[in-house]
Amino acid sequence: MTESIGETVPSLYNVSAGTVAQRDAFVNGDIPVAVYGLGKMGLPLASVFADVAGNVIGADIDPDVVETVNDGGCHVKREPGLEELVADVVDDGALGATTDPREAASQASVHVVIVPTPITDAKEPDLAILDAVVEDVGHGLEKGDLVLIECTVPPQTTEQRVLPRLEEVSGLEIGEFGVAFCPERTSSGRALEDIRGAYPKVVGGVDEESTRAAKLVYEEINSEGVLTVSDTTTAESVKVFEGLYRDVNIALANELARFTDELGIDVNEAIDTANTQPFCDIHDPGPGVGGHCIPYYPYFLIDPFETESPLLETARRVNDSMPYFTVEKVREGLKREGKSIEGATVVILGLTYRPGVEEIRASPSIRIASELSEAGTDVYGVDPMLDSVEEFDLRQIDLEGITEVGADAVVLVTPHEEFDGFNWDDIQSLDNDLSVVIDGRGTLEDSDLESVRYTIGSGYDR
Questions:
Q1: SS3 label, residue 265
Q2: CA distance 400 to 217
Q3: How far apart are CA 264 and CA 272, in angstroms?
Q4: Backbone phi, psi, residue 149, to 5°
Q5: Is 203 in contact with 211 (CB distance < 8 Å)?
Q6: Helix (H) or strand (E) segment spanning residue 90
Q7: Which stretches in the chain have pLDDT values below 50?
Q8: Considering only CA atoms, which of 455, 362, 460, 341 is closest in space to residue 409?
Q9: 322 by DSSP, 3-state: which?
Q10: Residues whose CB falls within 8 Å of the CB of residue 267, separated by 6 or more in sequence, listed in order
């Protein structure tokens, strides 16, 4: 990594330097970059910056993460191409890491912040991590520096919280440095693809020069180009709105799925057919909504602002209710077969929130397991992504173990591809106790099940 401490480095937030010269300086490694946060999205981002700009220091408070990165290792699993990219950029000296964000700030001219914004138990956005990083960046901020916020935050955060604190800590004023909000638009399992250009990058600065400088940076990173918007609040809203659209749409699908039994139809069939009309795009129903984005973004508008949001709040209630709906279908299915849910043995297939990823944050399986346990069942869980299930109220088994526990019911929540080859004949021939299968995602359509099967949105198959 190019040494920058004590050196005068070119600036991006300085239109007089000339765009061509600035672009050359950036891609030639003459402008040091710091990326704050080396998690599931931060490490891929830092690695791409290092690959393009050749002069990146990553900051993370976890010493194990920093040690792993500095050794050329990759703690983020199941991200295609990431392990090889990290090894290459570290070996080239383009990427290094530190546990001291102020050290990173003192070296960098471009500061990229990508840290989590959790939600408190009271459903309020917790900006403490962002605040701490902004404080550190402020201590190293110099004239001509550019601060890029990538983490998802409530609208107005950059303008009303980040910028004033940077000015206060650094003693500089806007116009002497730049700030832009540039939301990450990435998904686990495809981070490098998304960062490099699956979608255009969105950029909105606190002033025109901030927007121009940020655009210059991301045009080198993203092959699909850059969409500039009017200001940081608009850019923040773009990211939040993307998540809100999905949450509300899924809530519609989930509510429609609840009509399946009373209507006596396959609601999934009706949805699929309705979606052939170009103005209709209803999502798929399921046992709940998980992940670090969709279940949380509504609260970035619901809590901080006085404007009423009945649709967003209703969508959250509908989606939060689906794990309970799923458990009720277990209860109902067992009753149809003359069994009680109390004392039954239930196996949950898939504990992560999405197939092929290791993330369990807000996974519907957490609530499903808890509700089943409270109903008096013996709960087991199968998930090839997870080594530990301590967050779940269940016992972990492998896929082959389903035939050994005497399952009365199986609930498919997350259809990992490892489940595709599961032979239901084995469990049905070796264990006659299996009475009910709840298919939360409609992925068992071609399975020859002798047990009662209930598919959310399609109903009972017999």
A1: coil
A2: 50
A3: 17
A4: -95, 120
A5: yes
A6: helix 82-91
A7: 1-7, 430-431
A8: 341
A9: helix
A10: 256, 257, 259, 260, 285, 457, 458, 459
What number of other Cβ atoms are within 10 A of residue 146's Cβ?
Answer: 27
What is the reported pLDDT for 65? 98
Q: Please check whether residue 211 is in contact with residue 205, taking contact to mean a CB–CB distance below 8 angstroms.
A: yes
C-alpha separations of 330 from 261, 370, 408 in Å: 15, 14, 10
- Contact call for residues 79 and 189 (beta carbons, < 8 A): yes
The rounded distance, in Å, linking the Cα atoms of 239 and 386 is 29
pLDDT at residue 401 in the model: 84
CA distances to 1, 293, 323, 332, 336 from 340, in Å: 64, 37, 19, 9, 9
Provide the 3-class DSSP secondary structure of residue 452. strand
pTM of the model: 0.93
Q: For 70-94, what is each residue's pLDDT tens digit?
A: 999 999 999 999 999 999 999 999 9
For every residue of 71-112, DSSP letters joined together read TT---S-S-TTHHHHHHHHHHTTSEEEES-HHHHHHH-SEEE
* Domain spans, the chain: 15-230, 241-311, 321-460
Written as one string, the DSSP assignment of 351-401 is -SSSTT----TT-HHHHHHHHHHHTT-EEEEE-TT-S--TTSSSEE--GGG
- CA–CA separation, 412 vs 351, rounded Å? 9
Q: Which residues are catalytic?
A: 239, 293
Among 61, 85, 62, CA closest to 73 = 85
How far apart CA 88 and CA 51 sit, in angstroms, is: 9
- The reply to whether domains 241-311 and 321-460 share a CATH topology is no
Q: Identify the H or E element spanning 329.
A: helix 310-336
Annotation: CATH topology of 241-311: N-(1-d-carboxylethyl)-l-norvaline Dehydrogenase; domain 2 (1.10.1040)
Quickly count helices (H) and strands (E) in the chain: 17, 15
- List, as one string, the DSSP characters of 127-182: -HHHHHHHHHHHHH--TT-EEEE-S---TTHIIIIIHHHHHHHH---BTTBEEEE-
Compute CA 396 distance to the chain's CA centroid, rounded to the nearest angstrom.
Answer: 24
Residue type at position 370: S
Is 32 in contact with 57 (CB distance < 8 Å)? yes
Look up residue 280 and give its two tokens: 């209709």
Q: Which CATH architecture has domain 321-460?
A: 3-Layer(aba) Sandwich (3.40)
pLDDT digits (tens, 9 = 90+) for 160-183: 999 999 999 999 999 999 999 999
The single-letter code of the amino acid at 389 is V
Question: Which amino acid is present at 170?
Answer: S
Domain 15-230 is in which class? alpha beta
